[in-house]
Amino acid sequence: MYLKNPPRIKVLEALGAIADNRVKIINENECEVVSSEGDRVYKVIIKENLVNSTDNGTMYRNYIGYPIIACLMLMKKLPFNEKIARALKGIPWRRLNEEYKNYSKVEEIVFSIAKERDINKEELENFIKVILNELGRLHLRKIK
């Protein structure tokens, strides 16, 4: 089964996870990603274009979850932007997602935080577009 592209916000959430040092490469095929609240550890497996992760988006909604995106960035299989990542450090992703229950609203808040940290919306939009295009080209399939 091919995984769908994620909601746009997941690209930014992946950068935030990296900036917060919550992504650990175990070996060439495995990573662990700690959730933004520190209460969960997602196991990620990446073997060529076969992937899986224990996050809800990947497991239940069949889209490429942010832990997979973060691992692909650290493994240099997707572009990474240090400047944007630094601007997304310390954002309480889960709290925002649960409070607003609307990715567009959370995205607006994240854009606002990034702007205060000298990253404009256009830079974020361009980076999101690049990552979503790359994910589309990778044709990632879920490991059963």
Topology readout:
Elements: H1 9-19, E1 23-27, E2 30-34, E3 41-47, E4 50-53, H2 56-61, H3 66-74, H4 82-87, H5 93-100, H6 103-116, H7 121-138, E5 141-142
Parallel strand pairs: 4-5
Antiparallel strand pairs: 1-2, 2-3, 3-4
How would you characterize this protein structure?
- The protein is α+β, with helices and mostly antiparallel strands and 144 residues long.
- It has one domain (9-142).
- Helix content is 50%, strand content 16%.
- The protein contains seven helices and five strands.
- Helix 1 (9-19) crosses helix 3.
Tag the structure with descriptive keywords.
5-stranded mixed sheet; 50% helix; alpha+beta; 7 helices
SSE ordering: HEEEEHHHHHHE
Strand order of the largest sheet: 1-2-3-4-5
- Tell me the quaternary state: single chain
Strand runs, count: 5
The coarse silhouette is globular
SS strand fraction: 15-25%
Radius of gyration: 14 Å
Low-pLDDT regions: none
Offer a quick outline of the entry:
This protein has 144 residues and is α+β, with helices and mostly antiparallel strands. It is built from seven helices and five strands. The model has no long low-confidence stretch (mean pLDDT 96).
